[in-house]
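Morning, I've got a small favour to ask if you have a moment. I owe you a coffee for this, so here goes:
>
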Amino acid sequence: MTDTPKKYSFRTRLSHAGRAGTHVHGFVNPPLVRGSTVLYPSVKARRELGAKRLQQELIYGIMGSQTHFALEDMIAEIEGGTRCQIVSSGLAAVTTPLLAYLGQGDHCLMPDSVYGPARGFATATLPRFGIETSFYDPNLDEAGIAALIRPNTRVVYTESPGSHTFEVQDIPAIARAAHARGAKVLMDNTWGIHFFQPFQHGVDVSIQALTKYPGGHSDLLLGSITTNSDADWEKVRSTTLALGQYASPDDCWLTLRGLRTMGVRLKEQMESGIQVAYWLQKQPEVARVLHPALPGAPGHAIWKRDFSGACSLFGVEFKPEFTAEASQAMVEALELFGIGASWGGYESLALPTTGFLTRTAGTGVFAGPVVRLHIGLEDPTDLIADLDQALAVLRTHGK
């Protein structure tokens, strides 16, 4: 596969990376490779390749194929890392590195705003291995994080922005505090995609749900774990293989295809999302729009400092006089927004969050009900009209 020079823009690199090149004879896209058994020309060759199990080598199907390797190389380039491991889902991308870095007697710090299944893994599964997790306020500064780190804290987990309430964390400050005490920094960078370059800000391991924007069409499940050092790569890779984690080559191939158009989709969806967010900000029923790219929104200053753009997922907090039931009626009145828990696809989604979130550190408290919106590729004027008619339902449903 070609190594597209960094001098080219992001969209150009998405079009050219991970394929043979422009001046070769053959199909534009790399082939889909399925397989379990790999044959060797000799016993010696088998022995030599077997010693390279932590590398991208054709050894056995579970260790990857040319299809997996092409996608891994592209994701590493997108996030500015050196190596990437593809796994079966976004949740697998969360749980695998946690198991790689945590063992019996260890302690993990996790933001109170963390993705729900990640919280569930930390509270239900990690304790079975003698691992304790503490949930912290995602808005803590360097001193606040430092005060929570124990001698046995091995991982400081981050997610910025939080995927339901959009707290933007000060990742460089958190990384300084963690590294000064020997802890690794793991980050769920699914919202940031490439707008946030994790390894430039002190992150050791970056996690993404490729199910979202890289796939782009709401028809696959996939996750990625990207590192920037040989030691971290070997830790992640060996744990992945020990767990038998495997990603479907079909889903990898579809994600490679989705990445070719991701730059265009991100641009359109970011612009549409900001347009819809600005409109909502002006509506009398709305208390706040939780979109980090909006001036005055929570976390905007850190977003402006650390991010080069924004995705199309954000929250809307309604005024306290409206009930959670009224916000749910509004969501059900929407015609163009599906009611669904995912995001990053071509379709718009709406999801009430009030009453559905678990928090234990006192964060994520809002005076009025909150609804999460994902803006797809529909015309934003149509989406605004749909939201306008649904706000009428909010008003009439009852305060």
Q: What stands out?
A: The chain has a mean pLDDT of 94. The longest helix spans residues 249-281.
